[in-house]
Amino acid sequence: MPTTADAASGASPRTGRTAVRAHAAVRVERGTRGAPRLAELRSDVPIVLRLTGGSPVRTGAHAGADPLPTMTVHLVNGAAGPLAGDDLRLDISVGRGVRLVLRSVAATVALPGHGPGPSRLTVTAEVADGAELDFGPEPTVVADGADHRITTDVRLAATARLRLREEILLGRFGEPTGSILSTLRVDVAGGAGAPGADPAGELSGWVPLLRQELLLGPRVPGLHGPAQLGGARAVGSLLVAGPEWAEAGAGPEAAVADGVARLPLAGPGYLVSALADDAVTLRRRLTAMADLAG
User: Fold this and answer.
1) Which of 24, 92, 136, 146 is the most exposed place for a label (fewest CB within 10 A)?
2) Backbone angles phi, psi at 126, to 5 degrees
3) Which 3-state string (H, E, C) describes the chain?
4) What is the per-residue pLDDT across 189-221, written as a single tens digit (0 to 9) for each?
5) What are the sequence ranges of the domains in the chain?
6) pLDDT-above-90 percentage for the chain
7) Triad 46, 47, 53: Cα angle to 5°
8) C-alpha–C-alpha distance, residues 168 and 163, integer Å
């Protein structure tokens, strides 16, 4: 039997491996001269964050050409995995009047292991008024035997913008897939004119924009049947939200093309969902359908 110390540390009794606990954070604000300021950049292996770019503040005749000062940060995997039992967390905060572009340098490969329970990644994001978050990591690859959980929680202020892309690849080349459960929750601040707002125009807390759960894996009945994935091994979504779609009927119309569909949301935004045989085609379908919406 595992010892008390093993149970407290998350060590596996079969391998002696201690499950990884990591909590990383990135917080961007607008500085006194209008340039984006990196208020916090905290890495915690295996989540390593690197500042990779930023836009200058434009003045004079060029002012307004780039309305939001932008900062770019990349996620770097500092170790293999996640493996079973690993619990990873990333907190994101975007302050008023700035734009954060968050990318990753490579795909994340969820691997099997003998840790306690599934591997987990939790992402939380807060986006202030007049700010924008563009979060588009490389795909999550679910290796054979893996059991992975992704939870993403986003809160948008009334005039915040969001572009959130998620891509999942079922198995590495030539292997069957493991299991993955992806949960996405996005809320928008309630207010005058917002869905669910108080008639007097007072803030009514947070209004749900999207609730989505996606369960994929070898134990899902009919996963590769015509009602679900068919022969596809890549699945993804692209959520776009912003105040320009807050008015009723302002969003793009529903649309369907080969392997991709666009769904207007009841709140300020729309969701693009796609299937494909490979990651390259999946990215192309998501991006093309979103670009058509303007």
Assistant:
1) 136
2) -125, 125
3) CCCHHHHHHCECCCCCCECCEEEEEEEEEECCCCCEEEEEEECECCEEEEEEEECCCCCHHHCCCCCCCEEEEEEEECCCCCCCCCEEEEEEEECCCCEEEEEECCCEEECCCCCCCCEEEEEEEEECCCCEEEECCCCEEECCCCEEEEEEEEEECCCCEEEEEEEEEECCCCCCCCEEEEEEEEEEECCCCCCCCCCCCCCCCEEEEEEEEEEECCCCCCCCCCCCCCCCCEEEEEEEECHHHCCCCCCCCCEEECCEEEEECCCCEEEEEEEECCHHHHHHHHHHHHHHCC
4) 975 444 444 444 344 589 999 999 999 999 999
5) 18-230
6) 66
7) 140
8) 17
Nearest CA-CA partner of 102 in 158, 166, 30, 186: 166
pLDDT value at 12 more than 60: no
**Cross-strand pairs, 196:** none
- Tokens for 200, please give them: 């007097």
Residue that is written with structure tokens 């998620």 in the block:
166
Q: Which amino acid is at 194?
A: A
For residue 258, pLDDT beyond 90: yes
pTM equals 0.86
d(CA 135, CA 156): 14
Largest CA distance in the chain: 72
Integer-rounded Cα Rg, in Å, for the chain is: 20
Closest CA to 266 of 187, 204, 195: 195
Question: Hey, which of 72-86, 120-134, 212-226 has the most confident mean pLDDT?
Answer: 120-134
